[in-house]
Design brief:
Length: 245
């Protein structure tokens, strides 16, 4: 059957007849909008049962059972764990570090290039590329510890937010434990190691091979940031397809 908005409203009102509702709640149980087959209703919590109706544009809408929330409170903990471990900690923190650490590496090496300190190293017979870049690659091997801290703080922050909003912490902890897959942590650390290599090498490349004066150091830092960010995003997609697809 096809119903217009008035007929649908009357149908819903008949459904709530005989329920223990105040007159105010009954008056609110009306359709306030019917756009593209989407019906918006007020005052029908703890009332509706499953009822299929066909709207004029031949789409179907289901008046769902609203006697209980559609989403469990444990879903918040589950979503927090998945988002923090899979993306927020390894990927977003890496993009932030590209702006902080990457810009520093580019500017420091670029300044050495402008002031001819790199030329002085080469005159002394020192391999300037290894001398300046390799220690940064070794230092970035500690980067997974930073990501571990960010994971911990992200999950603890979610627990704190749940507690402050009055949601039981037990539901959040249960959500964290639901369907936990240790392989996701491995996947996150694999991404982290790859990103740490990018964070050390791409900014160093822009600083080592830059040309010009002091003004060009700032330009090189800017270029290193967006190129590092682009490479991280592309590698994130590739690694995800390789390990999780």
């Amino acid at each position: 059957m096809q119903l217009d908005s008035t007929e649908i409203s009357e149908l819903i009102k008949k459904k709530i007849e005989g329920t223990d509702l105040s007159a105010e709640a009954r008056s609110e149980g009306t359709i306030v909008a019917l756009t593209d087959g989407i019906v918006r209703i007020h005052g029908l919590s703890d009332v509706m049962s499953g009822e299929m109706v066909e709207f004029p544009n031949n789409t179907f809408g289901m008046a769902l059972n609203l006697e209980s929330p559609l989403l469990s409170k444990t879903l918040i903990g589950f979503a927090t764990r998945q988002s923090v471990i899979l993306e927020f900690a390894p990927t977003f923190i890496s993009i932030i570090m590209a702006g902080k650490v990457g810009s520093y590496i580019t500017s420091s090496i670029g300044t050495m290039r402008v002031t001819e300190q790199i030329d002085a190293l080469e005159v002394m017979g020192i391999n300037s590329l290894n001398y300046l870049v390799f220690p940064k690659i070794i230092a970035m091997l500690l980067y997974p510890f930073v990501i571990t801290i960010s994971m911990f703080l992200g999950i603890i922050g979610g627990l704190l937010a749940m507690t402050l909003t009055g949601v039981p912490s037990e539901a959040y902890i249960q959500g964290i434990q639901t369907d936990f897959d240790g392989y996701h942590v491995t996947y996150s650390y694999v991404k982290t190691l790859v990103f740490s290599f990018v964070l050390a090498t791409v900014p160093a490349f822009h600083g080592y091979y830059m040309k010009g004066g002091a003004l060009d150091v700032g330009k090189a830092s800017t270029q290193s940031f967006y190129w590092t960010s682009i490479i991280i995003i592309l590698l994130n997609y590739i690694i995800t397809q390789l390990l999780l697809a």
